[in-house]
């Protein structure tokens, strides 16, 4: 069922202050709100008696959004192989985001697959999911012997293995913990590049480590879809010609387990990007080729030379796993090397990463030492304190505190007055479409959920503050579809989203048809619209 608060701006603070002062206008708005809830219940709630979801349509300005064809069950508008197959293969450009033009976009609602069921609840979903929710057996057939997943009856089972850790992610994590402080609160955020079905990130959750796992839509097709169905933080993404959509100094460690990224190719562009994302004092972990790999001695030597050029310290080489530590200070200039490395000019903002071409220079971080491992607070203390990057906006530290307090009050209202089932097994994957400083995610940190915090890719770039808090997120422009599979989020939350999608570029039909598609059927859409946008969407 959908929930929507359409209170006008001057009323939004009424729930958080003192006693409510009822007036005639309050009664009018109360009746209106009830009508809205009934309307959305009729629109978004399918029949629970039928295990096969009926094909929906949603009211919008000028008519209804029709259902898509059954063949579009896993529609990814910006990662569509029918379009990408015509593009250049150079640096995997064709696997990056390439969104349809207005004339190409399908304005329809994606249907669920036949036999779709309500997902297995967390934490059971980490180990098994319904087969019919994504009936794709290619990974189980190709990778079952490596412990990725297997098909058993009505389920896909996830033993927790991976190509470089067929005996299980937990055993692999124990090995890494000998060299990386994974159990002390020093390490909180991680990036898993080429993650498979994200068992590594899933089992790190036990250590209070939030790992954002990513992989492209490739020959395995649905590995990120499996990860999200399991309730593991994951994102559809390709490291190709552009920066990844995260700010500099986001992650306490960067991990690659047989991700096959050629880190030293293209004058080291991919290593430089990993360096941009890795916090000073953080750890780079590479398992598999080319680390001590047969017939890849040259590539292994180049990888070590690249790390040395950026003053990384080699902590260990354990079998085919290498671990480096990035220097804690920002004073290391690229050493003499064969890669042509140099510092970027001051014109380059290391935090800009929305459709931003990869650099062949090393970014200089202005707040590197304040946000380095060892300087930044340990988890969970870092969650409640504004970092140095809050100064990206005027009076940022004070706004951080105000935002945090506001969302504690609002979340309490969501749960007690609106009945949003945060804290239950009904909700696991959550998206905040306009996250600002991540106050909403911080307010529900004790609930069994994870939150994808989305920040617009234009300034002010507050996503760095979110990562400094120990939360995760991405840059995005809501005039385009989000890079995720249909049916992957249990709850979508948005505050003042109209400021991000209004104007001639953002067609309302494109917005309304895409957002319901990424919601799990029988789930929640909870949106704080402005009255203006409510009129646009539901008339």
TrEMBL record:
It holds the Pfam family Methyltransf_29. Its EC number is 2.1.1.-. Its main location: membrane. Gene3D superfamilies: Vaccinia Virus protein VP39. Keywords: Glycoprotein, Membrane, Methyltransferase, Signal-anchor, Transferase, Transmembrane, Transmembrane helix. GO terms for biological process: methylation. It comes from the Eukaryota. Signal peptide: none annotated. This is Methyltransferase. It comes from Zea mays (Maize).
């Amino acid at each position: 069922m959908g929930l929507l608060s359409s209170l006008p701006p001057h009323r939004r603070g009424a729930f958080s202050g003192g006693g409510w002062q009822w007036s005639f206008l309050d009664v009018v708005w109360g009746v209106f709100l009830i009508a809205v809830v009934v309307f959305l219940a009729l629109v978004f709630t399918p029949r629970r008696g039928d295990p096969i979801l009926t094909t929906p349509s949603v009211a919008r300005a000028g008519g209804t959004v029709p259902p898509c064809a059954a063949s579009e069950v896993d529609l990814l508008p910006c990662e569509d192989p029918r379009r990408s197959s015509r593009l250049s293969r150079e640096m995997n450009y064709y696997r990056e985001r390439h969104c349809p033009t207005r004339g190409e976009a399908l304005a329809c609602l994606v249907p669920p697959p036949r036999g779709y069921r309500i997902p297995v609840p967390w934490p059971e979903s980490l180990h098994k999911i319904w087969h019919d929710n994504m009936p794709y057996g290619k990974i189980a057939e190709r990778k079952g012997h490596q412990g990725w997943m297997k098909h058993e009856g009505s389920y896909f089972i996830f033993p927790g293995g991976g190509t470089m850790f067929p005996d299980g992610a937990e055993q692999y994590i124990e090995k890494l913990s000998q060299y990386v402080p994974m159990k002390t609160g020093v390490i909180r955020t991680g990036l898993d590049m080429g993650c498979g079905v994200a068992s590594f990130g899933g089992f790190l959750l036990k250590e209070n480590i939030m790992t954002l796992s990513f992989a492209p839509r490739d020959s395995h097709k649905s590995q990120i879809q499996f990860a999200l169905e399991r309730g593991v933080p994951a994102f559809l993404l390709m490291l190709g010609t552009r920066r990844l959509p995260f700010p500099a100094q986001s992650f306490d460690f960067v991990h690659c387990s047989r991700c096959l990224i050629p880190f030293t190719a293209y004058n080291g562009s991919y290593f430089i990007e990993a360096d941009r994302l890795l916090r000073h004092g953080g750890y780079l972990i590479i398992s598999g080729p080319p680390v001590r790999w047969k017939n890849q001695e040259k590539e292994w030597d180049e990888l070590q030379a690249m790390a040395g050029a950026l003053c990384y310290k080699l902590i260990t080489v354990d079998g085919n796993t290498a671990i480096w530590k990035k220097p804690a200070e920002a004073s290391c200039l690229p050493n003499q090397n064969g890669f042509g490395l140099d510092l970027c000019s001051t014109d380059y903002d290391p935090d800009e990463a929305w459709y931003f071409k990869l650099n062949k220079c090393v970014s200089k971080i202005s707040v590197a030492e304040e946000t380095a491992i060892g300087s930044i607070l340990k988890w969970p203390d870092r969650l409640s304190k504004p970092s140095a990057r809050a100064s990206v906006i005027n009076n940022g530290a004070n706004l951080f505190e105000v935002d945090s307090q506001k969302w504690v009050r609002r979340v309490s209202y969501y749960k007690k007055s609106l009945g949003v089932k945060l804290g239950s097994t009904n909700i696991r994957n959550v998206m905040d479409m306009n996250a600002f400083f991540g106050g909403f995610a911080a307010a529900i940190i004790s609930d069994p959920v994870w939150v994808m915090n989305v920040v617009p890719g234009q300034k002010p770039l507050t996503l760095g503050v979110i990562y400094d808090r120990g939360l995760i997120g991405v840059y995005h422009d809501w005039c385009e579809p989000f890079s995720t599979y249909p049916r992957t989020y249990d709850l979508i939350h948005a505050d003042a989203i109209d400021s991000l999608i209004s104007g001639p570029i953002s067609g309302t039909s494109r917005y309304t048809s895409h957002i319901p598609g990424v919601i799990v059927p029988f789930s929640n859409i909870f949106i704080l619209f402005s009255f203006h946008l409510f009129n646009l969407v539901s008339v």
